[in-house]
Design brief:
Elements lengths: L4 H13 L9 H4 L3 H10 L6 H5 L9 H23 L11 H7 L2 H15 L5 H9 L3 H15 L15 H55 L5 H139 L1
Helix pairs in contact: 1-7, 1-9, 3-7, 5-6, 5-7, 7-9, 9-10, 10-11
Length: 368
């Protein structure tokens, strides 16, 4: 279901005022971003800390450029909070135009901004307290706020990669809403039972008074002469009133019993809803734990993939090294053959030189 963001502003302003932060008396003041920043600081002081809050300029009410600068800081921090802390990136259709808020005081875009603040509140670690605070609001405001939560947490079909962390939040918001409805209905029925009991008690007192008056009149009639027409008419009127009161008393008793049974059924339903709420809270904690474990495993998987790639690289280098070793061995064998051949050639050269020297000696002897 869709909400008009301009209408949403009115209800969300009432919700923001429950935080009792400065600059939060009108929608005009919200456009400065000061109240929104203080509310975010209350929601998660660890993320939206004092240092971050100090960067929000509180003197920006008359300067639209300063307001836009404040709103940009707030929006950027909220988007990072949704992505890094809550694991639920915000879709483009929920992103406000902070320029229109700061320059034109656009209530539609302001509604989108405050809706994101609401999403932070009902999704943080203290979400139970914030949801209980919403339940205490006026019923019409509560309905608008719950509808805004459902709209914000509805996943876009074009975003299949969105994490599943918020998958059950819509059911949780509905659960709190209907739990609130059941509690209010139970209180109304209890009040109605008390009113009916008071009416029954009053009618019984009136009935007892009429019975007493009837007995008194009957005693007077028994002591006197036959009743006159006036006394007889009065007696008939009293009998008629007595019968009417008895019928009304029976009807009220039946209605009281029905309401008591319904109140007991609602009490059982509230107990069941509270038990389911505890189960869902434990499941949400387990899901968060599994998500953290999945992140660790994903990180480990990435590291294993990198190591496997590195091992493949080393394998290829070892194969190349084996080829080089074979080439070196072949060259060494060839070098050995060449060295042996060189030695043989040197020996032949030495012999040839000796033969040549002997030949020269013979030549000199022949000439002499």
């Amino acid at each position: 279901m869709s909400l008009e963001k301009a209408q949403l502003c009115d209800s969300l302003l009432i919700w923001l005022q429950t935080f009792q932060v400065p600059s939060c008396t009108s929608k005009q003041e919200l456009t400065s971003g000061v109240a929104v920043a203080h509310v975010l600081h209350r929601i998660d002081p660890g993320w939206f800390n004092e240092a971050w809050l100090g960067r929000i300029k509180e003197e920006s009410a008359e300067n639209w450029r300063l307001k836009v600068n404040n709103l940009k800081k707030i929006l950027q921090s909220m988007l990072e909070y949704f992505h890094d802390v809550l694991g639920h990136p915000v879709s483009d259709r929920h992103l406000p135009d902070v320029n229109r808020i700061g320059e034109l005081n656009d209530e539609t875009e302001l509604g989108k901004l405050v809706q994101l603040v609401l999403g932070c509140a009902v999704s943080c670690e203290k979400k139970q307290a914030h949801i209980q605070q919403i339940v205490t609001l006026e019923e019409s405001v509560q309905h608008v706020v719950m509808t805004a939560i459902q709209e914000l947490m509805t996943k876009d079909s074009a975003d299949p990669g969105t994490p599943e962390t918020y998958g059950d939040f819509d059911n949780q918001a509905q659960k709190y809403y209907f739990l609130s409805e059941a509690v209010h209905e139970k209180e109304d029925l209890t009040l109605r039972c008390r009113e009916l009991e008071q009416q029954v008690s009053s009618i019984q007192d009136e009935r007892n008074a009429l019975l007493s008056e009837t007995r008194s009149l009957r005693e007077q009639l028994n002591q006197r002469d036959p009743p006159t027409n006036i006394t007889g008419k009065k007696l008939l009127l009293l009998h008629s009133q007595l019968e009417q009161l008895q019928d009304e008393n029976f009807r009220l008793e039946s209605s009281k019993d029905d309401l008591r049974l319904r109140a007991e059924a609602l009490e059982r339903e509230v107990s069941e809803l509270q038990r389911r709420n505890e189960d869902l809270s434990s499941l949400a904690e387990e899901a968060q734990s599994l998500k953290d474990e999945m992140d660790v495993l994903r990180h480990s998987s990435d590291r294993v993939s990198r190591l496997e790639a590195l091992v493949e690289t080393y394998k290829r280098k070892l194969e190349d090294l084996g080829d080089l070793r074979r080439q070196v061995k072949l060259l060494e064998e060839r070098n050995g053959v060449y060295m042996q051949r060189t030695c043989e050639l040197e020996e032949e050269l030495r012999r040839a030189n000796a033969a040549r020297s002997q030949l020269d000696s013979y030549k000199r002897q022949v000439r002499g």
